[in-house]
Amino acid sequence: EAGVAQSPRYKIIEKRQSVAFWCNPISGHATLYWYQQILGQGPKLLIQFQNNGVVDDSQLPKDRFSAERLKGVDSTLKIQPAKLEDSAVYLCASSPKAGGSTGELFFGEGSRLTVL
Amino acid sequence: SQKIEQNSEALNIQEGKTATLTCNYTNYSPAYLQWYRQDPGRGPVFLLLIRENEKEKRKERLKVTFDTTLKQSLFHITASQPADSATYLCALGGSWGKLQFGAGTQVVVTP
To answer: What CATH homologous superfamily does A5-115 map to?
Structure first.
């Protein structure tokens, strides 16, 4: 079974530029998550989708971050304009179960963003 | 305020010994707790889940305990091996819907 695919693995941009990350979850997984992991910290949830609807985006900085999940499969996370403090690893995860259940999360390898 | 605390100092342990990691939390009432392993440059990988009504869970050389009175989970790796070297994250889940992760503890197993 293929795992969660993310791209690009690495991205370096100047502040105020824009960047987009892509995620393809495990086939059949209804729930998709985007996490931000700053060096030395645990993952922090940015947004959770159930199929193509948003379940939780309470910690998403909506003035600069946006995310969509078209047709309930792939998802993109965009940052525009980027700030220095956005330097982090952006992890995509998926789960076959609905949000709020006890199901394990399957994570991708992450996209490491460096903002200069 | 809500906190999840894991030892920030790396745990250095000799091969064959038991590694014990702690996850303490405050101002949470988790329904379950999960443990993940994260290798450098990789995403976390799920290891174990324990529910609030369970005292202990085992999986091969791993053991997790959950004490809701002490607000603490302990994670044990018995007969540790160099391949067990990684960062281990605890994550709390409950009625609020989303997993809340701790910062993780790095384990270094030396031969």
So the answer is: Immunoglobulins (2.60.40.10)
